[in-house]
Amino acid sequence: MSTAPRLAAAKRDWGHDETGCTVLHIDMDAFYASLEVARHPELTGRPVIIGTGPRSVVSAASYEARRYGINSAMPSARARQLCPDGVFLPVDMRYYREISHTIMTEVFHAVTDRVEQVSVDEGYMDVSGALLAWERPTAIGAWIREQVERRFHVTCSVGVAANKLVAKMASTNAKPNGMLLIPAARSAEFVQMMPLRGIPGIGPSLERRLNAWGVDSVADLAAMSPEALERATGSRAAARGLWMASRGLDDRVVTPVRVEKSIGSEETLLEDTTDQRTVRRLLREACDEVASSLRRRGFVARTVTVKLRFADLSYRTRSHTLERPTDAAGVLYPECVRLLHGMLGMNGETAGRDDVSPDAPLPKLIRLAGMSASGLAPAEATAVQPSLDDMLEETDSTDSRTAGERRRRAEAALDAVRERFGNRAVRFGA
């Protein structure tokens, strides 16, 4: 859900010269909310807000909901005050990622393999190699918009430009459900009509800093020398980036392979708690979701991290690197429990013990709990050295499988059940 500023004056015909405009930025419109309406057509035309619970935040909102002033990251409780008749739905990230993957694979990659996915609902394409077949970049953009709407019942907006910066700003100003071509010769003119926050990467803090130097728009930014920008920002790299952006310049290339660094899941409780079983349940569900995502994406993970947020809004994390990479919740969850106890001083972690009763109360009120897996590597290319216990178990086992192998097969079977009957059909048990 984009909150970048848009100018009505920018959504106009900038000309039809597509020479050199080989970068497309495609941004799904209100993606999460649109997907929910797609699978629940009875919600069409109603304000749909993704994010439930009095202490949760809004992850996405339909355009009908945005008319009430609802934005992403707004507390859900505030959204209910603004739109009491809205339809509030929980985040179903597994579903959103599945559809996203299908769109990227079956639509974007049908045009070119030069695709850089930057989030679940947006990506860049370098279509220079596809023009022999398609002739015009805007023909590709129009085809993508038609395919996404016809096949998935959601809309997307497309920016067509000579580089990534201008293409992204163009797609933002094409919303909703539009396409905007910015000829290469008019890139600077287009960018310089924008407010400062129109440039991706300029947030409130940098905006205030630039305002203090009398810079209130991108046009003002373009009038500054590199030396003045360096004094204003305190960074030579930041000054160079802003100098180029204010002129519609960007030397970044579309990078097809985007290395994923971690996969995580967390949840905020409705009430702060010291009940250990409640927190363990959150960690168990997070491990299940993360492990399933690892298997679906073909990764194994080497490092486990647990995150806790306390009643005073402070938070703490602790990580542990496994001896062998894994994609199994049955391996991740016990590590999370040990990290939980170690973070709260509840066990003799240094002695390798974990003898804390699950009924023992936690020493601090917990507001949020979650975990993430990092140190990702492709499962097929990662050799996992069996332990001595594994080799002994394999020798004694009637089917020549270790407990780890049987656990992984069982969890893969859970994936198959969920794929057929829905994400909530079955869950990993401790």
SSE topology sketch:
Elements: E1 23-28, H1 31-39, E2 48-50, E3 60-61, H2 63-66, H3 76-82, E4 87-89, H4 93-111, E5 115-119, E6 122-126, H5 131-134, H6 137-152, E7 156-161, H7 164-174, E8 179-181, H8 187-192, H9 204-211, H10 218-222, H11 226-233, H12 236-245, E9 262-273, H13 276-297, E10 299-310, E11 315-326, H14 329-343, E12 366-374, E13 377-378, H15 388-396, H16 403-421
Parallel strand pairs: 2-4, 7-8
Antiparallel strand pairs: 1-6, 1-7, 2-3, 5-6, 9-12, 10-11, 10-12, 10-13
Helix pairs in contact: 4-6, 11-12, 13-14
Catalytic activity: DNA(n) + a 2'-deoxyribonucleoside 5'-triphosphate = DNA(n+1) + diphosphate
Region (Disordered): 378-411
Domain UmuC: 23-203
Task: Characterise this structure.
- The structure is a single chain.
- α7 (164-174) links the parallel β7 (156-161) and β8 (179-181).
- With 430 residues, the protein is α+β, with helices and mostly antiparallel strands.
- Residues 349-353 have low confidence and may be disordered.
- The strands form three sheets. A five-stranded mixed β-sheet has the order 5-6-1-7-8.
- 40% of the residues lie in helices and 19% in strands.
- Among the domains are: 33-93, MutS, DNA mismatch repair protein, domain I; 194-245, DNA polymerase, domain 1 (Orthogonal Bundle), CATH 1.10.150; 262-421, DNA polymerase, Y-family, little finger domain (Dna Ligase, domain 1).
- It has 16 helices and 13 strands.
- Residues 23-203 form the UmuC domain.
- Keywords: Cytoplasm, DNA damage, DNA repair, DNA replication, DNA-binding, DNA-directed DNA polymerase, Magnesium, Metal-binding, Mutator protein, Nucleotidyltransferase, Transferase.
- GO terms for molecular function: DNA-directed DNA polymerase activity.
- Residues 378-411 are annotated as: Disordered.
